[in-house]
Amino acid sequence: MKIICIGRNYAEHIRELNNEIPDEPVIFIKPDSALLRNNAPFFIPEFSNDVHYEVELVIKINKLGKHIPIQFARDYYSEIALGIDFTARDIQSKLKEKGLPWEKAKGFDHSAVISKFLPLEQFGFAPKESIKTLNFSLQKNNVVAQQGNTDFMINNIDEIISHVSQYFTLKIGDYIFTGTPAGVGPVTPGDHLTGFIESTEMFSFQVY
Ligand code: ZN
What we know:
The chain has 208 residues and is an alpha+beta fold. It has one domain: Fumarylacetoacetate hydrolase, domain 2, CATH 3.90.850.10. It has helices at residues 11-16, 89-97, 103-106, 157-167; strands at 3-7, 26-30, 35-36, 51-53, 55-61, 77-85, 87-88, 112-114, 118-119, 135-140, 143-149, 175-177, 185-186, 192-197, 200-206. A hairpin with a 2-residue loop joins strand 10 and strand 11 (143-149). Zinc ion binds at residues 5, 7, 54, 56, 85, 177, 179-180.
């Protein structure tokens, strides 16, 4: 199982970090040891003083595929979850300055929070209908921190699946984080994070 993540997929988030809009999707991978499930608490690692939340929609691959055309991408997923791509922003900034890979900042233990998965039908999509206009949000201590809508993705989910599969064979059970909207920010011990897709609560957990 692998966890594929898309960076810089919402223009407002690209602006808040002073990055450039990429010509093609930015891809990085987290190891399976990054997973954090079932509302387990998140412990801020001691090597960072600036761990940020990034709320993202997560797709689970349900069919083996490679070189998937965009028009068939919808056949490769049927469920959606909400996740957090925890990022050690201080470490990432140093690595970016030097042009080095991001893994230490993005792939550390428990940096990939994933909620339960729900079928897309539950959010009103027909069995083969691609995802459009899906709202999701993150609350920190009961205050809205991030609000996203798939309409504002630079590359939509089907385009992401097609692009990623040109480089990486997608296997059943792989996860794809699809990028974060604006509003990323730090977590501190004692914070409580709750995520929603539309009005459905997807996760709720404590930060220590
Ligand atoms: Zn992210």
